[in-house]
Amino acid sequence: MPVIWKPHALLAKFICVLGMTMALVACGGSSDGSSDSGTTATPILTGLWIGVTEENTGTSTTPTEWVTYVLFDQDVVYVLREDEALLGTYTIEDNDLSTFTMDVYPYANPDTDNEFYVGTDDTNDLVLSALQATSSKYVINYNNATRAGRIDVNLDTAQVTDLSINTVIGTWETDDSSMEISADGGFSGWNSATSCQWEGNLSALSSTLLRLQIQRENCLEFNVNVVNLAEGLAFIDGNGEMHFLATNATDILWMQFTATTSTTTTTTETTE
Fold first, then answer.
1. Fewest Cβ atoms closer than 10 Å to its Cβ: which of 3, 98, 163, 203?
2. CATH no. for 165-262
3. Contact (Cβ atoms closer than 8 angstroms) between residue 229 and residue 203
4. What is the distance between the alpha carbons of residues 63 and 56, in angstroms, rounded to a whole number?
C-alpha cells in the first residue's frame, strides 16, 4: 500500500517540536547553569539594633548621648531615642553601605518616666550615611547645618524571634500605667497619673513583629478615635521590654512596657 503524506499533520508536528525547542532555550539559561536575566536580588535590611547616639548641636563641641533603637521593617527604618524619632526609607549602595533619608519627629512632651513619646514631623529631612561594619554592628553618621552625630548600634541578638499573641498575654506596666492583653490580642491600658486611656488589638505579622491597631483618648497627644485606628508594629526587645510604634497623620507614637504577669504558669505536683 502506498504511503499517504499528510502535510497538515507534518506541519503540526514541526510546530510542536519548534515550540518545545524554544521553551528549552528560554528556560535553560546559559550553558553553565546561570541565569541570563542579569538581575540580582536587592538586599533587605532587617532586625532590631540597640546602642548610643552621640550628637553635637549648634556650636557645641561636647556631644550629648542618647540610648538609641534602630528597627528595620522591609524598606522602612525607625530610629528611636528619648528626644525624637526618625522615620524614613533607605537606599543600599552596595552590600555594606546605605543611605537613610529620614523625617524628623521631635517630642513636645516626652514622658520619660513611663517611656511614652509622641513626635510631630517638623518637615525637615535628615540624611544618614550608614555602614554595616559587621553582621552585628552598624555605624551611622550624619551632618548638616545645625547638627552632627554618630549612631553606634549592635544587633539585639536576644530580641524575641518567636513572637506570637501567646507571648504577650498578661499584664504590662510602666511607672504610672497598666495594660492588659487578652488571648485574642485585644488590649486595654490606663495611665493613673494622666487618665490617658488606650485600647486596640494585636495580630500576627512575622516572627519578630506583631501588627498593632491602637485607639487613644483623653491623652495629651496622639488621640485617635475608634473609627480611624492608628496602625503600627509591636515587638519585644532582648531586655523583655515590649514596644508599641504607630503613626497617625504627621505624628508618631512610641510606648514601652514591662511584663509583670503572664498566663503561662508552671505548676509542680508532689507525689507521696
1. 3
2. 2.40.128
3. no
4. 5
